[in-house]
Each structure stands twice: as structure tokens, then as C-alpha cells.
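Hi everyone, sorry if this is the wrong subforum. Our group has a chain we'd like a structural model of before ordering constructs, and none of us has done structure prediction before. Sequence below.
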Amino acid sequence: MLKKIKISITLILLVTVLFSCKEELLPKPAGFLRLDYPEATYVNFANECPFGFEMNSEAIIKKEKNCGFTITYPKMKATIFLTYNPVRNNINALLRDAQTLTFKHVIKADDILEQPYLNPDKKVFGMFYQVDGNAATNSQFYVTDSTRHFVTGSVYFYAKPNFDSIMPAASYIKNDMQRLMETLKWK
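Answer:
Right subforum, don't worry. Here is the predicted structure as C-alpha cells:
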């Protein structure tokens, strides 16, 4: 009987050893999503509103009410919203509203970088905001001539705000927004 038990245990161990040998599993190396966007080419956008600018030729622009515009990037699922307000002795209120809109994102933002913009030759003055972190918008700006015109712009993605995932698209559109801001001309 003892001999049968020893043989059974030996057979069980032998079968376990033979069938447990498998190829060693290794974790996959970290991979990164590579998103390549075409090099931006810009075209002048002229309209009946009191300002014009250059925009990316890949984007689709649509006029909204009161000289506001939406500039859509279908491949990136993002839209830049431009709003226009005439200045009527309310420059302080317009500036406060633009800054309040940006700083509402401070709850989710890791950092808000302010970049002043001054072009005295064109009479265009403003501020560009880069919002780092998982905020709803990653870039915003406002420009004004301080006496007659005030334009704000902000970009929103149609995705949950996860900055790591949308960073390539956010960077691409940020460059387009800066170009738009820097080429804006009053009529």
C-alpha cells in the first residue's frame, strides 16, 4: 500500500512538472500613441466683421451671432470659440469677464501660464493663457484695441479632459490660436 501511495505521488508530481512548463510571460514594454498632424498652413480669413485673422486651412469656420465664430478641427474633435464684443465704456468689465472665464479652471488646472501680447503697430493688446492639467480648456486668449473692439477665444475638446491623452492635439491647436491672435487685425 505504501508503495502504491509513493508511485501515485511521484506520478502526480511528474505530471504537474511536465504540464506546468509554459513560456515565461513578460509584461509588454510601455508604448505611446503617436499622433502626427499635417504641418499647418494658414490662410487669411476676411469677413464683414470688424476684424480679420489667419487660420489653419485644415479647420472649418462657421459664423455665429454677433461676429462670433466657431473654428472646428474634426480630426481632433476640438473647436475654438471666438466671441466679439464692441467696447462701449466697458473695457474693465470685458477684461474681468475674460480673466474670470480663465480662472474658473483653476480647480482642475495644475498651472495657468499667462503670456502678454502687445502689438502697438496694429493696436492689438491681449493675453494668452495656457492652462495645464485636466481642465476643460487648455488655451484661451483675449485681444483688444482698448477703445472699440474686444475678442476672446477658447478651445474645447469633445472628450473627457485628460491632458496626457489630448496633449498632441492641444499643442497643435495652441499654436493655431497663437497664430490667430498674433495675426488679428482691426478694420
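For your construct planning: The longest helix spans residues 163-183. DSSP finds three helices and ten strands in the chain.
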